[in-house]
Specification:
Strand order of the largest sheet of chain A: 4-3-5-1-6
Structural class of chain B: alpha+beta
Number of strands of chain B: 23
Radius of gyration of chain B: 24 Å
Mean pLDDT of chain A: 86
Shape of chain A: globular
Oligomer: heterodimer
Low-confidence stretches of chain B: 1-25, 27-53, 64-82
Strand content of chain B: over 45%
Number of helices of chain A: 5
Helix content of chain A: 40-55%
Mean pLDDT of chain B: 85
Structural class of chain A: alpha/beta
Order of helices and strands of chain A: HEEHEHHEHEEE
Largest sheet of chain A: 5 strands, mixed
Distance between the termini of chain A: 34 Å
Chain lengths: 140, 467
């Protein structure tokens, strides 16, 4: 029994470490009315499929620059897609004149700075970069 | 009365007839497009200049309209566009070589004059192209796009042409109207068929994507994006017309009174596409042939009426779906082109799938094309006096050559895509094509030695990029 409990504890620790390591979370301005979204809703906003949050407010996605660890982690975890697949997705939209990818900034600090002045913005940053200026979007 | 002055003829292909009308004394050249070896010569730079001046004039008027709209837009709404750059530049391209085992015909894409097989054993003209695009965001609602593609054209020259040139007004985030040139989106990948980086294969299956010569539309379209729960539907309506230059002295394909409706539905990793387009097609280069038939009494007139491509009502239908959850993908598509003319009814479909091992995506595709009829008895030659039998035989041969150009074939393809960076890929592909008896399949430039129903092996290697 003791042993089983330890094993469960061990598995829990390993799982906890696995999710904590290099984790990227979706964030909005701390004054935003958005609290939670589904993974698909977040992905739809970032891939340009929807322009609004479920509550009807305009949604302005802010990306991190291509090649950054946060960006690759975000698209792998939320959309299950590689950097090349995301590039292919936007190429379809760009080269048919339908739009342009979200504005991209170089790091998490830049995301936080933009969200501070943009109530409609949504971005993603490393868990470790989360502070009072942003609100982590709960993923349902 | 028509008299044949000269005729070159082959079993499977080319018929070039010089006919003289004895009443008017006028000569006419009957050249059946895909197989004739007649090449235009001389004064090509003048033609180039004329064409480009015309394109330029068209674009300048678009720019002028855009400037007007911009001026009115700015004064009206003072929107903050600081975040979005006014102009963005993008480019894409493919460098490729292809080899075909059939040296009596060319494998080609789109409406290029040449390809691999007959013209060159290894050809870079099958897949290579480079394109540049500029997007202008005049206001958050008003934008314009201009895309120029440089690729081998209907005469075999690398020649820039305008693929997209339109102005879009985004009334709401989900409702937009475009005026100008767009690609006619009949099939799932029609709009992005030239952007190799966006699909797994070397090229979209030719059986389906070579079904029709009408690929662009000059006109107006409106699209409205609807959200129902997890579903996103984007219905689109379009009207317009287009002119497309055909290779091998095929003249121009004129599509008039184009109207179409299409819809794309997305839910999660699933995308489904439907399109219906109706138009009237004219291929004036076929007129001399059918005018010839009209000289041969009621039977000849009936053949001409049935087959001439003159404002002939034609339809395209495309239905397709793709499922791409990330680790693997599968897609299937079915399409039909049908015309009340010698172009007849052509149907094609394909099924493809692949699995992504990291940056490496092997795939497998099966594609099939069928057509309604490949031969026609034409005029009853035996019932004609000897001096008419010759011209009648030549006319029948001309008609049957056109009919044999309907693709009947099936292809098994396998290959792999390797993403060498986030915007460059390398692809290798092997195709095994079985061409149906009496058809030339998707091939062109067919030579007298082209065998009946050949099996053709094609090997292709490409590098695609976007930036």
């Amino acid at each position: 029994m003791q042993r089983l409990r330890l094993t469960i504890l061990g598995i829990g620790l390993i799982l906890g470490m696995a999710t904590a390591h290099g984790d990227v979370v979706a964030v909005v301005s701390d004054r935003s009315t958005v609290d939670s979204l589904s993974k698909n809703q977040v992905v739809d906003i970032f891939l340009g499929r929807v322009a609004r949050f479920p509550n009807g407010n305009q949604a302005v996605p802010i990306d991190q620059a291509e090649g950054t660890a946060a960006r690759n982690e975000f698209y792998t975890r939320f959309a299950g897609k590689t950097a090349a697949q995301i590039k292919a997705h936007w190429s379809k939209i760009i080269f048919t004149g339908r739009g342009q990818p979200p504005r991209a900034v170089s790091n998490s600090a830049e995301i936080k700075k933009l969200l501070a002045s943009n109530l409609n913005g949504i971005g993603y940053i490393e868990q470790s970069a989360v502070d009072d200026s942003v609100k982590v979007v709960r993923i349902e | 009365m028509l008299r044949i002055l000269s005729s070159t003829k082959s079993r499977s292909g080319g018929n070039i007839l010089l006919l003289r009308n004895s009443e008017s004394g006028r000569d006419s050249l009957h050249c059946v497009p895909a197989n004739s070896e007649v090449r235009s010569s001389g004064a090509s730079w003048q033609r180039w200049l004329t064409v480009h001046l015309r394109e330029f004039m068209k674009l300048s008027s678009i720019t002028a309209i855009a400037a007007l709209l911009y001026a009115s837009g700015v004064s009206a709404e003072e929107v903050d566009v600081a975040d979005a750059p006014m102009f963005t530049f993008n480019a894409f391209g493919t460098f490729g070589v292809a080899h075909s085992s059939e040296d009596q015909a060319d494998l080609r894409t789109g409406l290029r004059a040449e390809g691999a097989g007959f013209t060159d054993e290894w050809s870079s003209a099958v897949d290579s192209l480079i394109a540049g695009q500029v997007n202008a965001n005049f206001t958050p609602k008003l934008s314009a796009v201009l895309q120029i593609v440089l690729e081998p054209n209907h005469e075999g020259n690398y020649d820039p042409h305008v693929e997209w040139a339109n102005i879009k007004y985004q009334f709401t985030p989900d409702f937009s109207v475009r005026i100008g040139r767009t690609v006619l989106a009949v099939f799932q990948l029609s709009e992005t068929r030239k952007v190799g980086f966006t699909y797994p294969w070397v090229r979209p299956p030719l059986e389906l994507y070579q079904l029709n010569p009408v690929t662009i539309n000059d006109g107006v379209d409106a699209s409205y994006r609807l959200h129902f729960g997890q579903w996103t539907h984007t219905p689109q309506l379009r009207v317009g017309h287009s002119k497309t230059k055909l290779p091998q002295n095929g003249g121009t394909a004129d599509a008039t009174d184009v109207w179409g409706i299409s819809n794309t539905s997305e839910i999660g990793s699933l995308t489904a596409h439907f399109a219906y387009v109706r138009t009237k097609i004219t291929l004036a280069s076929f007129d001399p042939l059918f005018d010839g038939f009209r000289q041969f009494g009621p039977r000849g007139v009936a053949i001409a009426d049935e087959n001439a491509v003159r404002d002939s009502p034609s339809t395209f239908v495309g239905v397709g779906a793709s499922y791409d959850p990330g680790k693997w993908f599968t897609m299937a598509e079915w399409g039909r082109f049908s015309s009340d003319s010698v172009l007849g009814t052509r149907t094609a479909w394909y099924l493809s799938g692949g699995y992504r091992f990291g940056k490496f995506t092997p795939y497998l595709t099966y594609a099939k094309a069928t057509a309604d009829k490949l031969t026609d008895p034409g005029l009853n030659v035996s019932a004609l006096p000897p001096f008419l039998a010759g011209p009648a035989t030549a006319l029948n041969a001309g008609l049957n050559t056109i009919l044999s150009q309907k693709p009947v074939e099936s292809t098994v393809s396998f290959g792999a895509r390797w993403d060498i960076s986030s915007n460059v890929d390398i692809k290798l592909q092997f195709d095994h094509m079985r061409v149906g008896d009496g058809s030339i399949g998707v091939l062109t430039n067919v030579q007298p030695g082209f065998p009946l129903g050949p099996e053709v092996n094609v090997f292709s290697a490409t590098i695609d990029f976007v930036f």
